[in-house]
Amino acid sequence: MRRPLRLAGVFAVAALLAACASPSPQPAASADQLGGTLEVYAAASLQRSFDEIATAFEAAHPGVTVAPVYDGSSTLATQIGEGAPADVFASADEKNMSKVAAQAPDPRIFAANTLVIAVPAGNPGGVKTLADLSRVTTVLCAPEVPCGAASQTLLSNAGVTVSPASSEQNVTAVLTKVAAGEADAGLVYATDVVGRDDVEKIVPDGADAVVNRYPIAALSGAPNPDAAAAFVAFVLSEDGQRILADAGFRAP
Description:
With about 250 residues, this protein is an alpha/beta fold. Helices cover about 35% and strands about 20% of the residues. InterPro entries: ModA, ModA/WtpA.
């Protein structure tokens, strides 16, 4: 009566030994397995926060070197459409992400932004409202880029017509001219003036009604697809969202 019990014990031991000998399943791509250069094409308004995100990502994945390219979203979308070797695209609006829909099948919204009036320190033009932009030297983003499209909507909603002294291809160029005193005012994102003492901001009426939502996507055909997916995940993570919030971005 006891032999079956002894046999069962033998089988149990054999099964245990076999299980121990079997290799454990490995994750598809661990931090140690990620490496190479990661080309991140990002809207100019993301530069400060994405520089910080890139540093944190590289610390978490020492084998990866993040190589960011910052410019107007429209310019970047055109470059990607023409075959630029980008791994990740982060746009300042959904319209320009849609231009590369074939390469970006799964975009995720990760942040939001609104516009403010930027003036040089001391506000020499005495700007107080959107209406004042029609009487002072004003620079705006070009209508085809996200900050320009948002600016046109904001001004139209307010019934204000502005003839800009120049139309820039990205928001950084607008802010640079304002900070240098080459213009009395410009419309930029709220995040662009955070922590700066060479410009002041005025929050115009109606700003909360014009919100740009920022999508990000790992691109199909990316030269470094595993690192691209990991970078997008990091931007969407608690750490990535904290960095964006500290820079003044709104939650998506």
